[in-house]
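Figure caption, in words: inputs first, then the predicted bound structure.
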Amino acid sequence: MKRAVCLNGVLTPEADAKVSVFDRGFVFGDGVFETMRTYGGRVFAFREHVERLDASARAVGFSIGVSFADIERDVVYALREVHNAESVVRVFVTRGEGPLTLVPTNDVHPTRVVIVDELRPMPAAMYREGVSVVTDATQPAIPTAKCMSYLPHQLAVMRAHAMGAHEALLTDNAGRILEGATSNFFLVKGGELFTAPAERVLPGITRAHVLSIATRLGIAVHFSPVLRDDISGGPEAFLTSTMREIAPVVRVDGAVVGNGAPGPITRLLHAEFRKGVGLDSNAPPWL
Ligand code: PLP
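Bound structure (pyridoxal-5'-phosphate present):
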């Protein structure tokens, strides 16, 4: 089996894994979620993901209602059911069933769903050649929380794909690049990193790991969003996310970044990241 579902703590056959039409997650997208992945069959950065899940729920005014150990048990149960080389683990917690009024009551019974699926690796070309991205003025309601109402992000990525780009870069009113619709964004300039401050973006788990690698390697980091025009002039840029790890960016709105190929600092950080998760540093995905 490649997929397994744990619904409110109970391993549930897919055909029976249903939630109520009165669930606020269905009705209003009123819930939070996390996407994690395994390396060597073990979930990477599990605690950091669950802490962010908990923080996201608090940011929208409810509690996930269970302990981190309960979620860990759900994930372990679901992972035991599958026979995947590696898996992607999605955790959703909604505010649960309630009246169909926009403002929820205080009587909250969250619905908790864990879905484990086979991890499909990103295409090697993404790492070898880098990706094109386009800027998009979408502004999520609460950028620091991973809320289920992801339609703005989804539409931004759909627009990007329609333009032949891999990802949308979300900009603020001044046109500064904050993050990707499903990733964090870094610019490398003068051997130093620039990324938007955590208060303005989803504080990515991969972003945090890249920041600690940079600190260890003595690479300075500036927490400030950059303008699209800052990208021209020979620097490197990359995206970070759980599913991509580190994806070199070689084009922004059609303008070539650097020499149009993945840059050396991007590669160095990616190689260090892969070492940190126990992958063979002699077999990077770009070779
Ligand atoms: N920013 C947004 C808006 C995201 O949706 C994601 C991941 O889905 C990220 C950043 C990257 O976060 P992580 O590295 O934890 O996957």
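The radius of gyration is 19 Å.
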